[in-house]
Amino acid sequence: MYQFSMPNIQIGGANILNNPNQQSINGVSNQNGQVKIIGNYSYNLRHCLGEGAYGKVYEGVEKNTQQTVAIKKLDIRQFQNDNYLRNSIISEIEILKRFNHKNIVKFIDLITTQRSLYIITEFCKDKDLRFLIQNKRLTENQALHVLRDIVEGFKELVKHNVIHRDLKPANILINDQVFKIADFGFAKYVDYSSAQLLRSCVGSPLYMAPQILARKAYGLKSDIWSIGVIFHEMVYQDVPWKARDERELLNNIMRQPFKLRKNVKLQTISEEILRRTLVIEEKDRISWDELFKMFDQYDAQNRNIPNPFGPSISNKENAFPLKLGSAANIMQPATSNNNISQPNKQLKKSIFDNNNQAAQKVVVPATQNPINNANIKRQASLPTNNLVNGQIGVANNRQYEVKKIFMMINNNRQQVAFKHFVCVDLFSKIKKNTQFMNNQQLDYQKLILCIAASVKLDMQQLLIELNENENANKDLFSNAKELKALSQTIKKEQEFYKVFVDEFLQYIRNANYIEQLKNDKEVSFIFQKDASLNEFTDQDKQRVDDFISSLGNKVSKEILSSIKNIIGNKQSSQELEQYRPYIVSAEYILDVIENKKKHQKGQEVFFDQLHLQKSEHSCVKVHLDKVNNKISIFGFNLLP
Fold first, then answer.
1. Which residues form a coiled coil (predicted)?
2. For residues 346-369, b (16+ Cβ closer than 10 Å) or e, as one string?
3. For residue 547, how many C-alpha atoms fall within 13 Å in the half-sphere facing its CB?
4. Which residues are annotated as a binding site?
């Protein structure tokens, strides 16, 4: 069984997420317990700006400068075993700390204690765009002013190859009439130069591009669609499409393409923004460069026009309803309180209500102080006439069993999900990566095919394991919401994996590779057998693993060798940086091979660290050398 722990990350010289013993940052409080001090910051428990399942946001003060800050306090125990959530928080921090731009919420500091993680960001006192839209009818010029700020922020994001993926009014904060992009929990670094495609279904449905709703590949322009929906909501006081669920929303979009409203007269630039951002086909949607140029021209023409909001945006007497960012919005669980949670009473009936934060991901229960077997036996053997103690013993025993089953199944699920992620990464870069190698034998395509087959086989085994546990523990599965959610998630992910296989097979058909692969002596058996019918023998499964190892080493070797030869003595960081995504692909291939070896030996695998390591290197050449050293573990010391 795999074990997971919080990763070590260096931010501003401080080790985060695994740093319980730093005496200088241990939280202390004043006599009445209302004012808390954490490092150089203090906050009053009465000044809570917002809260979610995993923590709260407070208005705080930096004690040396007296600067007002937002302090997001997260309970580490709530997500220490949830790999996806932890990665989301890490991603948010890593992305935030890169930027110092007026239209992006500024990261200030990060502090950890044994129980809590504190993310300190700039304080935005004028609420968010959602509040503004709900409480004020914006003029067209005001809407353009807001959109200009958002686009200015995206200039910086696009320059650094970041896609946001959860753009919505609630994630646009306001401070002194400046609109700032916030909540980077779903954000991701992408390879803009090669039009990398993504497939993860994340974000808020009302603002999702149709490709995401349809679970199809999407790329750089998904955020542009979200910008169009937000602008539509500002100028028309409503979103362009509504529905009761995602499927109905997608159908409405496909059946009713966007049209301007005849009863509302808009400026030419506003009409053009709406027409060109709300285009269903991503390839036909306006590009970022065109959108940036459009607003540059708008700024030049309106340079002398005063701020359309005047001296004040909002009533500053009101409490500021700050969102909790990734800690709450990414995986706000429908159940959350201690280990087995209570329903979120604020959820709306429809997932398309703007304020709904219902989760679509599994939340791993906290595993603090797990009960050992001796303690379980002791509790179970309590006298039956001691009703209270007997109830506690039964509850503890049940809780332990839930955790044990959850961790066993979810650990295997994460292994499958990682391999699927690598499949998607390799497929999205197939054109460029194959240029780095001699691919006449279709080794790259065969590698993807083998990893995808491994995912399918592992998922089939996982479903069997899940079914056996459900049948053997019907009472636990019917009452434990964590296990119900996990079961539903696994079955939903199986559909995602099927979609990927279908898309990949369609690709090799369109490229006229299908016959060559079906007749290939190494991989032909994959086409001849059906995993869902248990036609794969143990020997077949071992063949798949062996081919992943041999093909993976070969493909990685060719990609890295070619990049090493190409970059030569190049020194420009901009020149070198374009090759990093392909070094990352090679590294992910090696991760799949290494993970299998560790699994066979019963060693731990830290999936969050595998992702994090890909962004830790400031120098491309250093990154290349590191991956070369990793390859040498398998006996291929490739590069001098």
1. 459-486
2. ebeeebbebebbebbbbbbbbeee
3. 25
4. 73
Helices then strands (H, E): number in the chain?
Answer: 23, 13
Q: Which residues are catalytic?
A: 166
Which residues participate in the annotated binding site for ATP? 73
Burial, 137: exposed, middle or buried (Cβ in 10 Å; 0-12, 13-18, 19+)? exposed
Q: DSSP 3-state assignment of 180?
A: strand
DSSP bridge partners of 181: 104, 172
Q: Provide the residue type at 620 as one letter.
A: V
Question: Where are the extended beta strands (E) located within 63-134?
Answer: 68-75, 107-112, 116-122
Q: What is the pTM of this model?
A: 0.48
Instruction: Indicate the SS3 state at residue 471.
Output: helix
For residues 79 and 367, give the distance between their C-alpha atoms in angstroms, rounded to a whole number: 9
pLDDT digits 0-9 by tens, 120-151: 999 999 889 998 998 889 999 999 999 999 99
Would the pLDDT of 60 be above 90? yes
**Residue 523 near residue 532, CB atoms below 8 Å:** no
Rounded-to-integer distance, Cα 593 and Cα 589, Å: 7
Q: CB burial class (10 A; 0-12, 13-18, 19+) of residue 11?
A: middle
On the question of pLDDT at 366 being above 70, the answer is no
Q: Which amino acid is at 322?
A: L
Domains parsed from the chain with CATH numbers: 9-123 (3.30.200.20), 129-301 (1.10.510.10), 401-632 (no CATH)
Task: Count the residues in the chain.
Answer: 640
